[in-house]
Amino acid sequence: MSAAPPRIDADRLLKRLDAFAAVGATPRGGVDRQALTVGDREVRAMLAGLGVARGFTVEQDAAANLFLRRSGTDGALPPLLLGSHLDTQPTGGRFDGALGVLAGFEVLEALEDAGVATRRAVELAVWTNEEGSRFLPGCLGSQAFAAGALSPEWAGRHGPDGARLGDELAATLDALPGAALRPLGRPISAYLELHIEQGPVLEREGLAIGAVTGIQGTRWLEVTITGAAAHAGTTPPAYRRDPMVAAAAALHRLAGVMARDGLARLTVGRIRAEPGSINAVPERVVLTLDLRHPDAEALDAIERMVREELGQAATEARCEASATVVFDMAPVAFDAAMVALVEASAAVAGHASRRLVSGAFHDALFLARLAPAAMIFVPCRDGISHNEAEFVEPRFAVAGAETLLEATLRAAV
Ligand code: GLV
Ligand code: MN
Ligand code: MN
What we know:
Layout: H1 10-21, H2 38-53, E1 57-60, E2 66-70, E3 80-85, H3 98-114, E4 122-127, H4 140-147, H5 165-174, E5 180-181, E6 190-196, H6 201-205, E7 209-215, E8 217-226, E9 230-231, H7 243-260, E10 265-267, E11 271-274, E12 280-281, E13 284-293, H8 296-316, E14 320-329, E15 332-333, H9 336-348, E16 353-358, H10 364-367, E17 373-378, H11 394-411
């Protein structure tokens, strides 16, 4: 160890956050940098360039996950992995994902600046397509890393913009020719991810750090309700088979039931009427359902209830409904020792913390299948995220990076 302990350079971190937020910046102060787009490729190249300049090893894998490694003194030991994502929602914020990646890079630089030798290598991962809003599945990169393979049917999937996932993956890999291709998956000693809370708890309690104990379950369904197209002006209600009426009735009833369970969440973020004419009863309505609950059995029960309500509402409107699960993530509890490590690291860094469960999913969910994992949360203003108004006070971004640095120093020995 060198004499001076490593320290987070707040100014460098905050300037980086600004520079990366400029790629895909929206007029309303947010970021649109969806997975595997030109903007996503641009920020990967920026980070890879920063890594090369610091002498880190830069690699990517077939899922276009990007890795920057600072070597340890014992090359036989599996590395400690830090990570998060650089892709955003279509109208995303500046911090969801980017904070974890850039704080991770700041940790590598802080170690480098102080000349600290860690026994394990410390590697920073940028996971591909965490958001899942352009291509299914969300957390594509971390899932593929944990499984050691890409699922063969993913490549043929198309995003709402018509792009084919396989083509966009290939183009993203080609855009970084200097990063050597490595096999998917690799033994790691542990995984740490810093992220914004995306909820109101830490801010309300005036705390800088959350030690995340686990992540609630998520299940996405694609629902199709089929009726019959008909003239909007001439067809009386009794003659209609209107799938929009069925969708509205089912969602109204489901929203009522879900509101009575304080922990359950149901969201319809995408809905499409086909053929989509202003003056025709649609033949078909296709919508997405995002279901969440911290308890796996409760999530199963919610899916059963959703299917029943959809079936009943469809029958009432003389339609048919079908639903397919397109993404399923069971709840996860993080390793107790890693959660304690986060708490201890926050204390050493001088930041008050509390434990909490994540309502959002994260790549850490899949890494937890491979190795002990944990997450560090920092507050965001009014708990707002997946929104261009998302904001993290600079002092909290820095507090998160400081906690990540302390945790890294303890986990990389
Ligand atoms: C992550 O983006 C989530 O939707 O929880
Ligand atoms: Mn995120
Ligand atoms: Mn997100």
